[in-house]
Design goal:
With 140 residues, the protein is an alpha+beta fold. It is built from four helices and eight strands. The longest helix is centred in the C-terminal third of the chain and has 20 residues.
Length: 140
């Protein structure tokens, strides 16, 4: 499979709730820092003891999330792993293992911060989404 082009990356990023209010142009800026990563079946990509430093979007394939051997969820196309990793480096309390050949988009925290520092409108939109999500949690 050929490497993803910028349009394919933008389409994948449109499914990320944190980025849902961004324009296609703004998403293309984020897509420009998103790195395509491919993993074979059975590859552990997240471990409870290791801090996360990137958001991951499943482009193709699937990733099993488990805790203490119990399967919690299987992330598939357009699912996101670790959106909070862009703002918090605490480890995720689960193990994530690829089920089959899997392609991910990886957005590193440092690259994301560099992008935000130059794009105030993206920063405002992302924080607006976070605040709305937090308000929704508080109101429940």
């Amino acid at each position: 499979m050929a490497e993803l082009n910028i349009i394919e990356k933008v389409i994948a990023l449109e499914g990320v709730e944190l980025l849902k209010n961004l324009s296609p142009e703004q998403l293309s800026r984020i897509a420009s820092i998103a790195k395509e990563v491919k993993h074979p079946p059975g590859k552990v990509i997240l471990e409870p003891a290791k801090p996360m430093d990137a958001l991951l979007v499943v482009v193709d394939g699937s990733v099993e999330l488990s805790r203490d051997g119990d399967v919690l969820h299987v992330a598939k196309q357009n699912d996101v792993l670790g959106a909070w990793a862009l703002f918090d480096d605490d480890p995720m309390p689960v193990t994530a293992t690829t089920v089959d050949d899997t392609t991910l988009l990886r957005i590193a925290r440092d690259d994301f911060y560099d992008l935000l520092s130059d794009n105030v409108e993206i920063t405002a939109s992302v924080f607006s989404t976070l605040v709305k999500r937090f308000r929704k949690l508080v109101e429940q």
